[in-house]
Fold each of these.
Amino acid sequence: MGAVVTGLRVTADKDTGVAVVTLDRPHRLNAIDLGMRDELVATWQQLRFDDSVRAVVLTGAGERAFCTGLDRDAEVPQPNSPYMTDDPLLHIGPKSNDLWKPVIAAVNGMACGGAFYLLGESDFLVADPAATFFDPHTTYGMVSAYESVLMAQVMPHGEAARMALMGTAERLSAERAHAIGLVTELTAPGGALAAAAAAAEVIAGYPPEGVQGTVRALWAAKEAAVKQGFAQAPHLVSLGNLPLDRQAELFRSRRSGFRSR
């Protein structure tokens, strides 16, 4: 399988059994528009049926960002009701699409906000030393709901809470992310993709039935908490988000500085 589609690049090595899915909008810091959203869903669905692919690496194009979440220029219509909200990124992850092949994220540059839908459904993370993690929601008058539920499953509670609440004022360094277990391997500069691919190749060499069953078992250990958290998320977003014009005002007036830790 090999394809180039708008915003997403997918390549597969049938000899190793590893596919690489690349978020390919570096000019927009790999932010996800609705076209890329649909492509991600279609890609995970396609990979379910491709038996030649036994492990997946997920990464972002360019050096500046893995993914910066939802593209702010994306138009996302919402129902005119406080009881219904449509989150455009809710189903962009592999687990949400019933893909139980292992997915390893190779993180380079910024990973923030909606990127956590992808990282929270990856099986483990490998990071470049320049990678940083942060959640901008509170800065712009938004509730970090789905993102925080997912990250609370892969980070100590205090770390997840601090990242969500500090907004754009603070970024989690790759070194700190490695120290707390969010990142499993910190590579040499520029080495994240190669390291993730090497791990994926090892896993792809094992019998897929056992690997996929293990992936499913690991997710089962936390999916009940995710489902309960997600059940609360639409109401929290509806109650807590500021109107879009006020969010935009806060975005325009944001401060450029931040602290790394």
Amino acid sequence: MKHTSHADYALRVLMYLRVAPGRRGSVGDIAVAHHVSRNHLEKVVQRLAAAELVETTRGRGGGVRLVLDPTAITVGQVMRAMESDFAVVECLGPARYCRIAGVCGARSVFARALDAYFAVLDDATLEEIAANDDGLRGALGMINGIAGT
């Protein structure tokens, strides 16, 4: 299973905010730090805000900030907020056109695998995946806590 770039970028935004001073930053700074499109990140941040994982403030001194403590945000929660389709096989999705659906055992195997996948993601927190403060700040070019300075 491969996630969309929105899910990937959502984790990157949250990890940036986890290590940023005051756990806040601007979409522009985050885009520069990760070398990704600002426009793309704006859409990601909007979805994160809709999921109540971040809060955005416009204007001078505004930006994006974490709403919850990093120990309270799970990777599974982020994936569910950013992705809409986890049907790794057709029979897990809403439309079932497979001729052998209902008579084969594949659906239950893939459903159990998906449950196990989310059990792992639900056990992993933002705090855990972004625990290397100095390493992340260095990789993101955050000198004095600000990207690109």
Amino acid sequence: MPSDHQTQQIPTQKRNATLTLWQVVLFGLAYMTPIIVLGTFGVLATVTQGATAGAYLAALIAMLFTAYSYGQMAKAFPVAGSAYTYVRRAIDDRLGFLAGWAILLDYLFLPMVIWLIGAAYLYSAFPAIPQWLWLLGFIVLTTGINYVGLKLASRINSLLMLVQVLVLIAFISLSIHYVVGDPTQPLWDLRPFIGTSTTLLPTLMAGAAVACYSFLGFDAVTTLTEETRSPRQTLPRAILAITVVGGLIFIGVAYFVQLATPDFHFDNPDAAAYQIARNIGGDLFVSIFLIGLIVGQFASGIAAQASGARLIYAMGRDGVLSKRWLGTLSRFGTPTGGLVLSGLIALLALAMDVLSAASFINFGAFIAFTLVNLSVISHYFGREHRRQGLDVIRYLIAPAIGAGAIIWLLFSLDNRAIVLGAIWLAVGLAWLLWLTQGFRLPPPELEVEEA
């Protein structure tokens, strides 16, 4: 991938289309960071009262419809982009701006959640050191690496990704071994899917609304459009494959870990997997697990902050945000303003827990997902009049179900997250009114491709 400096100099440079289907799928899975299922396990187990696998299953079903819609929009507009691009081209520039504003919520706050999870686990292992100090360590170190540039961050990420995959495999294996060694615990049990709650559906949907955090990034492969062979055919298949494979990994891990931990009451739900790792593997494994999880969070934080800072830079450069503070690059070709802003926002984690922070991020994702589903209806069913036979299912019923499922998940979020998310959207709408002088001017066009 070209550096920011190269992209800025040659914005129309033609990229080599060399990526195959499975290369794109592997990229998407790596971006999703599968080990996150362990990082949020305690929160999910508490919310669902022991039905973590059921929550991931419900989330997977809902996400499949949205993944289908992303695939259809990638087929219609085979350019590097995101929900912002699809909504702007399929529905309206102003709705596209709001979709971009919702995406900005994810990009700005995702590093905060990643670092918060890592800090919670380190605090569980070393309670003598305050959690806020671990959080500051993540922010400073990650920001420093990203300031030096993408090349260093990429090299570090490749190594860290391998470590976390190996730790995830070890955790699953030990969970299975632990369950098999208990004669009172069958290997097949419905409890990880239904839990102990007397109100199963609301509980599952509340859990699924949080579980969707693990799926964030499944759509990141749309940025690889220009590097992918036959993108109109490859990207829709890749997006669905990433969602299915990632969902099955999450369900499988959640199922066996829940079997190994039928009691979902933890001393610290934000760092429950640390307690579970000690139970199933002893002191040695809990140390290995902690290293793997922190490595995974560190790698994910590097990527999330780098992506967010570059989106902020693009918005500053295009006049959506302050060009003076956010639209310039450092001598390393990195967006200093975006990196600093990301670090400052992460300080909000000092007053939040993982559940509220992850729910807040999901609010922005759910808004974008809903608009992408509606974009399929607007573009294919509306503009192109694809209304015959199976097209009614493809371009009306399926995306409508997807939009409905995402809206249901949105209103199943933590109440504080809904309020904060609504405030964020209101600020975005007010900013849009200012930029367009009351909708008299078109909104500024954001070149997401260059971010």
